[in-house]
Amino acid sequence: MTRFLSAVLILVILAGCQGGLPASGSQTLLGAWRLGGAAGLQSCEITLKNTPVDIGWEAANDAACPPPFSTLRSWALYDDDIVLRNREGEVVARFMPGGLNRFHGRTERGASVSLSRG
User: Which domain holds residue 86?
Assistant: First the structure.
């Protein structure tokens, strides 16, 4: 019985490591977001989904998204920050809350970017 409980505990811990889609407030992050940025970054739409993938949850982009967002694969929530990753699992950008329906962040190369909607 102890081994069984240990195995269940390990599975629960591993499930939590997938990259956060925490119970409270996570559903408000799902759906379409407008990606914008400084220095002439073309705006485009990014969709955060609740489908599990290898690192976090599925993220999709429209055809207008420029590099590095053109190769999006996944997203995860760490504390209150959204982290976007490409198909190779590399971090593309990190975003911090910036108000209602708005996140501000930087790409891994230091460019300012934002996510917003509504």
Answer: 2-116
How do residues 82-102 score in pLDDT, each as one tens digit? Answer: 999 999 999 999 999 999 899
Q: Is 71 helix (H, G, I), strand (E, B) or coil?
A: helix
d(Cα 115, Cα 100) in Å, to the nearest integer? 11
Total number of domains in the chain: 1
pTM value is: 0.77
Please state, in angstroms and rounded to a whole number, the distance separating the CA atoms of residues 75 and 4: 32
Q: Is the separation of the CB atoms in 95 and 102 below 8 Å?
A: no
* Closest C-alpha to 68, from 102, 96, 109, 115: 109
